[in-house]
Amino acid sequence: MSILLHEDPSPAQSQGHQFLAAGLISCLASASIGTVLGFSAILLPQLESEKVVLANSSEASWIASLSNIGQLLGALLTGWVANQFGRKRAIMLLCLPLAFGWTIVGLSRGSVHWICIGRVCQGIGIMSSVTQVYLIEIADVNNRSLFGASGALSVSAGITFVYILGAICHWTCVCGVCGGLVILVFLSMLGLPETPNWLALQGQKEKAKEVLEWLHGKGNSNIQSELEALQPNASESLLDEEQPSIGSRNEPNKLWREFKKPEGHRPFLLLICIFFLQQSTGSFAVIFYAVTIFQDIGVASNPYLAAILTGCIRLLGTLLGTLLAKRYSGKWLMFTSALVMALGMFLLGLNILGIEKMTTPEANFLTINTLHENHLNVTFDAETPTQGLFDDSSQNGSILSEERIKWLTKLLLVLPIVEIVLYMLAFGVGVGTVPWLLLGELCPGSIKGLTSGLTVFVAYGTIFVVVKLFPSMISVLGQPYTYWVFGMICLVTALFTVGFVPDTKGRTFQQIEAQFRDPISEAFESTQGSEQMASNRNVSSM
Predict the structure, then answer these.
(1) Total domains, the chain
(2) CA distance readout (Å), 91 to 219, 489, 508
(3) Which of 266, 291, 373, 426 lies 20 to 30 Å from 242 when distance is taken between CA atoms?
(4) Distance between the two ends of the chain, CA-based, in angstroms?
(5) How does DSSP assign 322-375, residue by residue?
(6) Is residue 72 part of a domain?
(7) Cα separation of 191 and 278, whole Å?
(8) What does the pLDDT read at residue 180?
(9) Looking at residue 315, what is its pLDDT?
(10) Is the pTM of this model over 0.85?
(11) For residue 484, what pLDDT is reported?
């Protein structure tokens, strides 16, 4: 089956194998996703300094957003491959275009056309949906939230990692390091098993049992019950007929019948809405243009340092979200997260609006020299009168001392960083973590590969639109109103979460499916079931 499964570990050793598998997938595969997402933030400033592209140009926006076009194609491919050939093979297959993309960009010698082709290949190789499904399906009920959230944590780590590399290395060196990471992903997958859920769907009960024993411990008394819990999904997908071979003509019809069931299409439509709102909050605009955003705000002394700080804060937020998901409801983590994100965006817009107002001649408040000394990127018309604004001999005299003006301008530089940090921290705690956990939980196993691929297709399509339009929004609406738009979307996300997102904590896949099949009757039963499971865990820990 796989290299690691040929071992015969003791029960004590095998208890940790689900953590070993999750660690490899999270630390390598999910981190490789983050490197692609964060790459444009360090690539574009270096290309601008090399006079390859102009800041805020159409070429720059295409380089930043084209990976999302590849992700659209990759999402559709991933869903089909994961359903037909398994989650493990899908991850290994996606390593090929991802490694190819890093190679093309690294050898492009600054050619915009080759960089764009490489970015598309990188996007095709991004394996977000299938890695998340793999993490969820190898975990037991008690660790499912932790494993599901760990994927988002490692994506944040990958983003921060590429920010740091970009601050100290040329972008071609970054391509080499990230391409090497993809090779490690491929090699690590050779030693990991297929998920028991997919094996059960293929009627391979003995292999599914073997994998469960390897993941959760050979002496684990819950193995048989876990195996039996997987069988209804498999039997439903076969519709009491003999299982067809992979690629059978009847397969599309069977998938369609599964999708038409309430527990098939309802969670899928819900996931579409969740991911559309998640990606519309603007988080990836901040990630893709991190260095440029801080340059525009005025942090011109070391925008890379500010971007690294943002990545570290996002990583910290995702770490908190991962730990909190183990203890608290994902639904309320997502709600609180969206509210705090809205606060951060509204404050950022107000802050930038204040800077713009205070640096106009009518404000009689700041001098151009003071702004330039403190690295505020503010321009005036050639005819703007600047003499006498702070001249003690003027009629009104100076409003503020020079020292206080310098202190105020430094404060105005710090506040945007604080507000973006608040926004990214909150994103990692809930909005950036919980949807990926739900992606592996909500849809039935028989169509999970397909629905997760389609959901990620919509997600990356939304990212493409947001990232591509972000520079235009800044130009047309201005920075304050652009960030206020994102703030309003964060508020909508919070309200939608309260009204429609289910609480899946401590519930089995069968209970989640039953909730969508009959939401009213399941509400009472699931509450009782969750209380009973909590009681059982307390008893077992005594």
Answers:
(1) 1
(2) 30, 33, 25
(3) 266
(4) 38
(5) HHHHTTS-HHHHHHHHHHHHHHHHHHHHHHHHHHHHHTSGGG----HHHHHHTT
(6) yes
(7) 34
(8) 94
(9) 84
(10) no
(11) 94
